[in-house]
Task: inverse folding
């Protein structure tokens, strides 16, 4: 790692990215339990999943006494005339004690004013605000966010400048940006110079171009130049792309003159990659999975999210992988994995996380109707006719499948 170089001042409540190996922002895979586990295994800092400014604006902040977490939530209603029927949707969660001084909030935005408005809602509870300028998926880029910002550098700089002007003095935290490399080193250099001049304290470079897929190897040819430009301005530079462990990250950063490294996929599969060899290195998946399940239950994590992550952590070669995907609640998972000592906690977690209620609602929906009144018969007849029609109509009922509506959610595929 470079030493004896210029550094921009780090605001009082902010963090310096230098010398750190950090957990990458990951939609779905970077929810609270994954971040807490990464910290437990030695991640120096953790990024939250990209949260779009519009989703954040209008949320209410509250402290959850049971889980000791801060939650930003809103009421969602299918029936706007009757908000009582509305369900609560938690947009962002953090653990103020366990993530203190370690959490960076990543924002998805294409507008300086909205970015400031959204950042203001969480700035007092996090250690930095990062702007996503690297997501290549159409649902992000079509809104002018993510990697689209690499093609509109003036807009990206205006967003960073607005955050530096409005958020830094009031909340005393730093602003950073996460980018991808451009096609040529010359183009990337022009961009990085502009970004560094905005007053940011850190820049992460994902060493892939926007069209590159995750399975293509990262390109490190531009990295030294990017780190050198960052250092000219005193900005910390984190490298990202195919880093597999804390030790490898520190070694690569040293080799290419960067200040630290960021890990995504390797940490998604096994977050103990943050343990050094001295600490025992990578742990077997069963041990990691047990820790993960405990944290999920303690934090009342949504079961669907827990199961998604478990499916990343357990290899397809393991015989339990297939039945794991069919589990419906924490009790099922603990039983399947032989975690009998956690069964009582699992039963409670199923109640606390709303999993049990959800299963009951689903069962009630499946239950056949017993009402035989003439009105009910008439309703059933109408429903059948509508459903027959719907079957003939092959157009999708939703403009996008649920998974695709999540920014960056499919980057792993
Ligand atoms: C499941 C998943 C979700 C991701 N979500 C985000 C995100 O919200 N914001 C972002 O900037 N990058 C996101 N990324 C990209 C990663 O942060 C990282 O840049 C990329 O995976 C390269 O790092 P790796 O080679 O260590 O996987 C995501 C990646 C994955 C695998």
Result:
């Amino acid at each position: 790692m470079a030493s004896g170089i210029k550094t921009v001042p780090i605001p009082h409540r902010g963090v310096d990215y230098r010398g750190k190996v950090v957990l990458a922002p990951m939609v779905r895979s970077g929810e609270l339990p994954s971040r807490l586990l990464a910290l437990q295994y030695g991640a120096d800092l953790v990024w939250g999943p990209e949260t779009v400014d519009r989703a954040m604006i209008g949320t209410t902040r509250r402290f959850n006494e049971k889980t000791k977490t801060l939650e930003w939530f809103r009421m969602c209603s299918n029936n706007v005339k009757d908000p009582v029927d509305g369900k609560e949707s938690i947009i962002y969660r953090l653990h103020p004690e366990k993530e203190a001084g370690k959490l960076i909030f990543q924002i998805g935005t294409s507008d300086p004013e909205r970015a400031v408005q959204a950042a203001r809602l969480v700035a007092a509870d996090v250690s930095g605000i990062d702007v996503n300028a690297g997501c290549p998926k159409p649902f992000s880029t079509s809104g002018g966010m993510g990697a689209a910002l690499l093609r509109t550098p003036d807009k990206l700089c205006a967003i960073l400048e607005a955050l530096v002007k409005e958020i830094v003095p009031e909340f005393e935290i730093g602003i950073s940006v996460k980018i991808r490399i451009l096609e040529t080193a010359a183009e990337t250099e022009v961009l990085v110079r502009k970004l560094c001049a905005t007053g940011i304290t850190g820049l992460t470079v994902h060493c892939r171009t926007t069209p590159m897929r995750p399975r293509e190897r990262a390109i490190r040819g531009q990295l030294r130049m990017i780190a050198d430009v960052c250092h000219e301005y005193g900005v910390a530079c984190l490298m990202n792309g195919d880093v597999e462990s804390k030790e490898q990250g520190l070694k690569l950063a040293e080799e290419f003159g960067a200040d630290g490294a960021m890990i995504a996929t390797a940490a998604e599969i096994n977050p103990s990659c943050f343990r050094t060899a001295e600490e025992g290195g990578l742990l077997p998946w069963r041990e990691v999975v047990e820790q993960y399940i405990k944290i999920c239950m303690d934090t009342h994590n949504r079961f669907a999210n827990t199961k998604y992550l478990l499916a990343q952590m357990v290899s397809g070669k393991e015989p339990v992988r297939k039945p794991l995907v069919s589990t419906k609640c924490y009790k099922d998972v603990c039983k399947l994995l032989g975690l009998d000592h956690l069964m009582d906690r699992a039963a409670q977690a199923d109640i606390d996380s709303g999993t049990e209620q959800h299963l009951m609602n689903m069962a009630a929906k499946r239950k056949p109707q017993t009402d035989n009144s003439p009105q009910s018969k008439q309703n059933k007849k109408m429903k059948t006719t509508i459903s027959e029609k719907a079957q003939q109509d092959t157009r999708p009922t939703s403009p996008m499948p649920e998974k695709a509506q999540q920014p960056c959610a499919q980057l792993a595929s």
